[in-house]
Amino acid sequence: MGRRKHRPRRGSLAYMPRVRAPRPVAQVRAWPAEARLGLQGVAGYKAGMIQLFMIDDHKGSMTAGQEICVPATVIETPPLLVCAVRLYVSTSRGLNTVSEVWASDVPRELSRVIKLPKKYDAQKTLERAEELVKGGKVADIRVIACTQPKMTNLPKKKPDIIEIRVSGNSVEERWNYSKEILGKQVRISDVFKEGEYVDVLAITKGKGFQGPVKRWGIKILPRKTEGGRRQVGTLGPWSPARVMWTVPAAGQMGYHQRTEFNKRILKIGSDGKEITPKGDFLRYGPVRSEFVVLSGSVPGPTKRLIQLRRPVRPRPTLPTSPPSITHVALSSHQGA
Question: Are 47 and 268 contacting, i.e. CB atoms less than 8 angstroms apart?
């Protein structure tokens, strides 16, 4: 008998099922446990990619101390408006919302996204929330914030609503901080600093309904194959008499939620001319508001909402000091 041939399976089953995301805003399913008082994330809109030159400060790197070229992604992050504070209680089925305290001056554009309460007693709701916090029933505190796309070059008016966890030593400390920022704007410089690392959550580019060759990377069959070439050679054995879920098949490709860990913040600024290439960003335009530059690429197409979160898997060996940037290449557009 001849030697049996083996090969790795085509494609990865790590992201099954590959279905469309329910909406273009990613859902944050986990937050890190921190003692630092403040918000644990912000959000912005992807503008595009640039190239910059910096001094390599990674210890042990072959180019340590030398000038290197780094691809980077520019995310425009206009200030977030904190609209409400949400209190959670711990139950046998996880966290459940027990109270919400909304700001008195909610922006009018927010009514395009959600239905705001018409009859709302802010003082009574605040007193009830105070009783829950002092009674020790509150397990977690998060804020409901909305973006302000009107401050960017995006052709949209509807703000995107996200939920951000408030970290701190005690629940009362987090509650007092939440009351201070309620109804106010929070900038990215209030949450993150240059040199720190963040987790990036976004919805990837949608590619529609694709066949198994493009979706899974299977081989194209020989030219005389009966029934077609761009398909699997067999759907499975006689027993079990069904097609298993591991068989590469056609279906949705792209528009999935993905999380990338430990992306370094290279630069935070407010003057968009510092990072806008000549001719502006392709399919986006110039950066007009505050921005953050991350090392490497991030999921999603241009104009998509990108959420930045405190790292849940921090690596203590990575450098955290602000990087030394020597030059930002703006002569031509470097990609999207």
Answer: no
